[in-house]
Amino acid sequence: MTQLSQLSEAEIEARFHVTGARPVGFMLAGYAKEGVQFSIQFGSDADLFLTTLLAVMPERNLLIFDCSGSQEMNRRLLASSRSVFIGRPGGIHVQFAIERVQETIFGGARAFAVALPARVVRLQRREFFRIDTPRAKPLAFFGRLGSELVHLPTHDLSVAGLALTAVQRPAGIEPGVGLDNCHFALPEDRHDLFFSAAVRHVTRLDGRGVAALWRIGLQITQLPAREEIRIQRYIARVERERHELS
User: Fold this and answer.
1) What is the pLDDT of residue 137?
2) Helix, coil or strand: residue 239
3) Partners of 132 in the beta sheet?
4) Torsion angle of C-alpha atoms 236, 239, 244, 246, degrees rounded to 10
5) What is the Rg, in whole angstroms, of the alpha carbon atoms belonging to the chain?
6) pLDDT in tens, 107-130
7) CB-based contacts of 210: which residues, under 8 Å, 6+ apart?
8) Are 10 and 109 part of one and the same domain?
9) Do residues 199 and 179 make contact, with C-beta atoms less than 8 angstroms apart?
10) Burial of 224 (0-12, 13-18, 19+ CB in 10 A)
11) pLDDT value of position 4
12) Cα(151)–Cα(164) distance, rounded to whole angstroms?
């Protein structure tokens, strides 16, 4: 369950949504001026590519953004009825949905045009989208603490960090400790995802009638952009599958 799904619609609206044509247009125009990169997700297969906002035309209710270098991706986007932009300008998660896009020419080059979104979701650094990972077959985390190997199942995951579960507190795991050569394999991916991490908290969980567990929160400190996209794609797929089953 994501953090957003635990809030009421009114709480989400008050805390995270930027609404109104003028505030939305002003915010997106700023991202276009700064050249902020967004990933755009669309289609039933959770297709994704990186794009840049090129211009905002509030008088025409238009957002212009760059197309993909792949003609096949461009074709799939044009056929999609809904897409989602996800970016992290300044380390803050920004997300908004758009309807069907059209081709256009901007600055003498091919681009896409779409109506401005009605709202933009803007989350602070501590409020990233986070999902619980599958319990039946959890993602297996590997990391190095000095010469020792840390091998534990993950409990939840976001692009900012993850939580691990341990039946015993691993020796040397304390808040502030760094873990090197961290990696895990996302389902259906052919290659492991590599990064560095730092321990942010170690919490003992006591349950009635069951043995105590330890929850270890990690902050991802070095994550290449291509690996972040892989996590975003995985989160989008898991959320979509859970929504379809609900």
Assistant:
1) 81
2) helix
3) 156
4) -170
5) 20
6) 999 999 999 998 888 765 444 566
7) none
8) yes
9) yes
10) exposed
11) 46
12) 9
Residues 112 and 198 in one domain: no
Which residues have a Cβ under 8 Å from the Cβ of 142 and sit 6 or more positions away?
Answer: 149, 150, 151, 181, 182, 183, 184
Question: How many domains in the chain?
Answer: 2
Q: Do 36 and 102 share a domain, yes or no? A: yes
Distance of CA 179 to CAs 109, 150, 220, Å?
Answer: 45, 9, 10
CB atoms within 10 A of CB 68: 18
- DSSP, res 89: G
- The whole-angstrom separation of Cα 42 and Cα 73 is 10
Task: Name the stretches of the chain with pLDDT < 50.
Answer: 1-13, 125-127
Residue 211 pLDDT: 66
Mean pLDDT (the chain) is 82
For residues 8 and 123, state if they share a domain: yes
Cα end-to-end distance, the chain, whole Å: 12
| β strands within the chain, DSSP E | 17-19, 37-42, 47-57, 62-66, 83-87, 93-98, 102-106, 109-115, 119-123, 131-132, 140-145, 148-157, 161-166, 178-184, 193-205, 213-222
What count of Cα atoms within 13 Å lies in the side-chain half-sphere of residue 189?
17
| Beta-sheet pairing, 148-157 with 119-123 | unpaired
SS3 category, 59: helix
